[in-house]
Design goal:
11 strands; globular; 297 residues; 3-stranded antiparallel sheet; single chain; alpha/beta; 8-stranded mixed sheet
Amino acid sequence: MARIWSVPEPAEVLAVELTNGAEVQVRRHGNPAGPRVILSHGCGLAADMYLPYWLLLKDSVDLLVFDFRSHGWNPEGDPASLNFPTFVDDYDVVLRSIGQRFGEKPAVGVFHSMSALTALLFEQQRGGFAGLVLFDPPIQPPGRNPEDMVYISEHMSRGMRRRQDRFESHDDYIAHMDANPAYQRLRLGVSALMAETLLRPDGEGYALRCPKEHEAQIYEYFYGWSMQIDTEQVKCPIRVVGSDPTTSFSFMPSIDFGEMVRMNYDFLPEATHMLQLEEPERCVEITFQFLSEVGLL
């Protein structure tokens, strides 16, 4: 398949040392004079995979993207460190390092799924963002009890461990993704972009940059941590953009009216969990609207 999406070279790369000997590579794109936007990704994915979305942002904002441990540009990390308390610590270090390297100014976090949950935990426990735009965060579904949530996490973790994790070529991976019902609404060429950003050569073909065992471990506690979110303790402005709750591939947020109001919640009709790769223009429009509302655009 001809390449439609090509990730641009970053203007600068900042290596940030984390605990347990880990390191993440923060990449700077866009307009340094614009409002600061910090972006990351969902479980098993990579920040560069969201290019159809953030390419529409970068000329107007000071864009910094980074991958979680064992994801994207970063090497495989210690599996013991793949947990949400550590991810919250990582946000603290990354945010401070960005300010030290590029100068202090208000930063809006734009996060999806796993990184959105981490951002809510970070703001609830510590705070540091001037605002958050969260795409399809795994908020506790309505009517669920703790036993339900444990079952869902364990079910998803088992599914991750069964997934195919090696491919003969990029074309092999693209065919695999194009046949998956969860990815039928992706923009043209995104499956090739996923192959480029989620695979690394291993001498005999290609393997997932985030090993399936690492992804499965994160999912084991995913929903347990989602139940710890107390939106009343999150003080910065928030905009939550969900997938269509009637689709098969979405996280359904709480339907408690007060919580929906506090989180400034809306959803995109027909969009699935991968909404930034299905409706990038609409997602960018919402992001710019939020930046304007908080006085940064």
